[in-house]
Amino acid sequence: MAVTFAWIAVGAIIVTSIGLLLTRDWRWGISLLAVQYLAMFVLALQHWPLGMAAVKVVAGWMSAAILGMTRSGLSTIDSGEEDTWPRGRPFRLFAAGIVALIVTVVIPGVDTIMADAGFAVTAGSLFLIGMGLLHLGMTTHILRVTIGLMTVLSGFEILYSAVEGSVLVAALLAVINLGLALVGSYLLIASNSQEIESA
Amino acid sequence: MNAPTLWIIVPIFLGTLLLFITNQRLLSVLGGSSAVVLALMAQFVPIELALRLGPLSLKIDSSLTVLGRVLLIQPSEGPLLALIYGAAALWFFGAEASKAAPRVVPLGFMIIALMVASIAVEPFLYAALFIEMAILLAIPMLTSIYKPPGRGVVRFLIYQTLAMPFILLAGWLLAGVEASPGDLALAAQSAAMLGLGFAFLLAIFPLYSWIPLLLEETSPYLVGFLLWILPTMTLIFGAGFLDRYSWIRSSSQLILALRYIGLLMVVTGGAFAAFQRHLGRIMAYGAIAETGFSLLALSLDLRIGIPILFLLIPARALGLAVWSLSLTIIRENVETMRFGAARGVLRLTPLAGAGMVVATLSTSAFPLLAGFPARLALWEGLSRVSIGSALWMMVGMIGLLTSALRSLAVISIAEEYTSWEPRESQAQILMLGLGVIGLFILGLFPQTVQFMLADLPLMFEHLGR
Q: Are strands B50-53 and B63-66 parallel, antiparallel or unpaired?
């Protein structure tokens, strides 16, 4: 049963991470990020007790909320950097496909290295890391960069939960997630500062 | 009382309190004095030994347990703390002159405390988590909420954040290598992970593009502070890996890799500095070359490499402090720090111009300046191992020397009959004067800091012995 849930979570991760790459509306972006953290929680549960895994989803949702609340206070429309070729949707889908292909190839090897973490756990984490890196490589928009970093870290945290069960590590990673969201919010406000000053 | 509380938690608390003070001078004096007190205590108050003060007996424990893990500051790490907090005092006292005190003092305290925590945490591979927290705190230090962030800040955040997963995974893999030393594939994988992590953290070629960008966008003093504390503590953390894992220490491939990467940093740093037309970018490449020198020190026989690594630390701290303060003052008086705009600025900021040139010369190992003794020892050590490497190191230093001479030429060339109109404040003159004198003292009498440096290798079990 747990394995079935894990594969459902992997499916959710694939949908949300591709959705994050394609969507241009920040509301969808934040919502997808929140769902992604829920899927991450399910995968973390494969190796961690409920209490510790819950830390991940709570910290993740708080981070998403911080970013969402900050973005909702800013009226700037998203920059048009995504509109031009080769960064349009077809290109992104194509790039996501390549990431999926690479991930599929390396899953068995990484799973062996990571103390047989489980195929679902390895697949989910590697897909998140790959899509996060792809995201980071495609944009300089602050909100998207923050989401990209949070996606990479989510993938890493899933993989790391298979080999490390320390409470201190879980707490520090939660602090880092929240800190990243706060820094992202700070930079978001700063990047809109001219508008604030002139308003 | 325990050492982690004193040198980690108290500075974080102090930094938080200082956030509420906006007076530049008060912040600078309070921050600097507190750092001096912490440095003096680290140097003179023994850890794990009872200290009798009349009828009172004071003992500082070395450990603090947090969530089942331990923060441990060994008695042998006292001199390192003294060095770090002593150098921090230098930066904080100079903060008033740079007009960056509200950002550098409170956040600087917290960043230093987190970096100290990264050295103190057990198991030591959790250090990456504390370093990442310090990186996150550095963002509000580097950017103002009233100004859009530049590309350099975003790239800094991305590159430094990506380091953490690699280091943590490498730490876990290394434990596996210890358990089965014959597994060469696992050893290679862990070494690759570790290498990538440190490449991001130390901004190894070609991952250092954020440094010149930051120095174009942000106050040089703030960037200089980060270019001092982050690589210094990361290098000590990296040396910890060498100390703990004998197979890494004895790997001839790793020694070669360290040497080639160090040379790459020194040569590219020097060569790029020589061809820059922006004073800030020259400092950026100077700092990159500094990291290269440290990596070269780690590539030598560690009995001489580790003392050289520690000898490089005070010179780096003082050199970067003088360099970045000078650039901050020059930046106030010119439109941009490009050569075209900075022509003849020596007549407006004579001491800042001199400070910048002296600091650049010190980085390029100019005789009688702070950088000279450590680089001379490094060069000698390197020439014993490989003459070719020593020649490449010279190429890098010549590049840095060229950049110093070019900078001097640019800031001193002025229109005919332009009068001297010094605009530096008294605080700036005082701090720059002391800094430049310090660079000469460290160059002429390197033994002045030996009382702190001599015992530093004792913090490692195997290195430097």
A: unpaired
Nearest to B146 among A152, A159, A197 (CB): A197
Q: Report residue B277 CA to chain centroid gap.
A: 24
Contact criterion met (CB below 8 Å) for B382 and B394: no
Q: What domain count does chain A have?
A: 1
Question: What sign does the CA torsion over A70, A74, A77, A80 have?
Answer: negative
Q: Are residues B106 and B253 both part of a single domain?
A: no
Per-residue pLDDT of B121-133, as tens digits, reads 888 878 999 999 9
Q: What does the alpha-carbon distance between residue A96 and residue B211 come to, in Å, rounded to a whole number?
A: 31
Chain B interface, Cβ < 8 Å to A: 66-69, 126, 129-130, 132-133, 136-137, 139-140, 143-149, 151, 153-154, 157-158, 161-162, 164-165, 168-169, 172-173, 186, 189
- Identify whether residues B254 and B373 lie together within a single domain: yes
Q: Which residues neighbour A121 within 8 Å (Cβ) at sequence distance 6 or greater?
A: A6, A43, A46, A47, A158, A159, A161, A162
Which domain, by its residues, includes A26?
2-74+119-190
Tell me the ipTM for this assembly.
0.92
Tokens of B451: 């009382």
Residues of chain B contacting residue A173, judged by C-beta atoms under 8 Å apart: 129
Please say whether the dihedral angle defined by the alpha carbons of residues B287, B289, B291 and B294, taken in this order, is positive or negative. negative
Q: To the nearest whole angstrom, how far is the Cα of A25 from the nearest Cα of chain B? A: 21
Alpha helical stretches, state H, A139-162: 142-161
pLDDT in tens, A51-80: 899 999 999 999 999 999 999 988 765 555
